[in-house]
Amino acid sequence: MSVRADAESLRALPVFRQCDPTHLQVLAFSAEKHTFVRGERIVEQDAPATAAYFILSGVADLRFSERGRDHALGQAEPGSLIGEVAMIGGTRYSLSATARDGVIAAAITRDLFNKVIREYPEFGRAVHAVLAQRLDQSVRELDTVRDLFARARSFSSL
Predict the structure, then answer these.
(1) What is the C-alpha to C-alpha distance for residues 26 and 136, in angstroms, rounded to an integer?
(2) pLDDT tens-digit series, residues 29-49
(3) Least confident of 49-58, 77-86, 148-157
(4) Distance between CA atoms of residues 79 and 15, nearest Å
(5) Bridge partners, 96 (sequence order)
(6) Which of the ends of the chain has fewer CB neighbours closer than 10 A, N or C?
(7) Pairing relation of β-strands 103-109 and 32-36?
């Protein structure tokens, strides 16, 4: 795929939808391509998030572990971005992604992402605006669930 095509694919993602195509071309050009063989981990749950991975080809299985139990979340196909929120926030991955067969992914490192933000502050503002909207939506959804619990009858009265 060309840098321009990779940039257009990035722009299709909600987190980059409001970004200037030129900034995404810089990101796509500078991202390192990695090849993962079947069964190889792309990201590991609870590991420090040093990069987000843009799937160029292949399929990755997504899973998370909680209280010793493993749960399937789905899959990441070409055009998917894995670990972007953790990478941007400098936190840990909340899931694991494993190559189902061969996967080629572009690694957008935290250093690269921050370099593009320093060079193009409007890029950073656009990405952070989308993340703020996502956070706001999540808070509203949690408020709705909290209200439902508050109005629900107690289990002890059943």
Answers:
(1) 29
(2) 999 999 999 999 999 999 999
(3) 148-157
(4) 13
(5) 63
(6) C
(7) antiparallel
Decide: helix, strand or coil at residue 62: strand
Q: Specify whether the CB–CB gap between 12 and 55 falls below 8 A.
A: no
Place of tokens 């749950």: 45
Residue of 13, 33, 8 whose CA lies nearest to 23: 8
CA dihedral 22, 5, 127, 51 (to 10 degrees): -110
3-state secondary structure of 99: strand
Q: Tokens for 17, please give them.
A: 């939808």
Q: Tell me: the pLDDT tens digits for 84-120?
A: 989 998 999 999 999 999 999 999 999 999 999 999 9
Tokens of 38: 């079947």
Tokens of 4: 């321009």
Cross-strand bridge partners of residue 52: 108
Among candidate residues 79, 43, 80, the one with its CA nearest the CA of residue 64: 43
Instruction: List phi, psi (to 5°) of 11.
Output: -65, -20
Could you tell me if 66 and 87 are in contact, meaning their C-beta atoms sit under 8 angstroms apart? no
